[in-house]
Amino acid sequence: MKQVNLLYAGKAKSVYRTDDPDVYIVKFRDDITAFDGEKKDTLAGKGRYNAEVSAFLFEYLEENGIETHYIKTLEPAMIAVRRLTMFPLEVIVRNVASGSLVHRYPFCEGDLLDPPVIVIDYKSDTHHDPMLNDDLIYALKLATPEELDQIKATAFAINEVLREYLDERGITLVDFKLEFGRRGGKIVVGDEISMDSMRLRDKETGASLDKDVYRFGRGDVIETYAGAAERILPGTG
Predict the structure, then answer these.
(1) Which of 48, 58, 59, 146 has its CA 20 to 30 A from that of 157?
(2) Are residues 109 and 143 in the same domain?
(3) Is the dihedral of CA 52, 38, 191, 24 positive or negative?
(4) DSSP letter at 111?
(5) Is the pTM of this model over 0.85?
(6) Residue 228, in any domain of the structure
(7) Parent domain of 78
(8) DSSP type of residue 140
(9) Does residue 231 contact residue 207 with C-beta atoms inside 8 Å?
(10) Per-residue pLDDT of the chain (237 residues; tens, 9 = 90+)
(11) 142 with 89: CB under 8 angstroms?
(12) How many domains does the chain have?
């Protein structure tokens, strides 16, 4: 497998084509952003921690019957993935009220959401990722009703798998973002599952173990990411 050229550069990851048209390379950069890109920094080592956690959690989901785009880790901060035709949707599964849910709705920080709630945003920097309902998704032809049903069912299944695993590691899965794509008639999990895309709390202390540390200046970001990775990866924590 040979890296060919840059396909896309996001806020914290770069995607490259390879000499195999069905395989891409994702590089997790050390860049970190918050508040729709208003806050930006580069933190040495951050990309590697996100890549390691994403790779493991993708493998763990595969072991539990959930198909992902992950193929293998090539080197620190770089993974090979299957090419997907992505849905322009950010699917957020919420177990505990936090972040925008508290700012926009009459929830209190820390309210348990039972059953969990799915919120879907339109993935568009131009439109600042507005929240969608099902009717808007159909009207914009972003997904069919059958596809959306499958996306939601898969997101809830992932939540159950990850919530149980993290609970055993002393971590509360507050919420997390997923992205999905089409591949050969199947709907497959793509993008990443890392400290950048999850909101995690220590079960005993309530301390943040994710990008909220950067958003709100709650401590050393790299120390937090390293500690979260150590607890999540097998044989550590």
Answers:
(1) 48
(2) yes
(3) negative
(4) -
(5) yes
(6) no
(7) 3-82
(8) T
(9) no
(10) 899 999 999 999 999 999 999 999 999 999 999 998 889 999 999 999 999 999 999 999 999 999 999 999 999 999 999 999 999 999 999 999 999 999 999 999 999 999 999 999 999 989 999 999 999 999 999 999 999 999 999 999 999 999 999 999 999 999 999 999 999 999 999 999 999 999 999 999 999 999 999 999 999 999 999 999 999 999 755
(11) yes
(12) 2
Residues 114 and 50 grouped into a single domain:
no
Instruction: State which of 30, 56, 82 marks the end of a domain.
Output: 82
Do 89 and 76 reside in the same domain of the chain? no
CA distance 17 to 59: 22
| DSSP structural state of residue 88 | S
Question: Which of 66, 82, 98 corresponds to the end of one domain?
Answer: 82
Q: What is the DSSP letter of 191?
A: S
Phi, then psi, of 177 in degrees rounded to 5: -110, 140
Same domain, 116 and 73: no
Report the alpha-carbon distance of residue 177 to residue 195 in Å, rounded: 10
Q: What is the DSSP letter of 68?
A: B
- The Cα 13–Cα 19 span in angstroms is 20
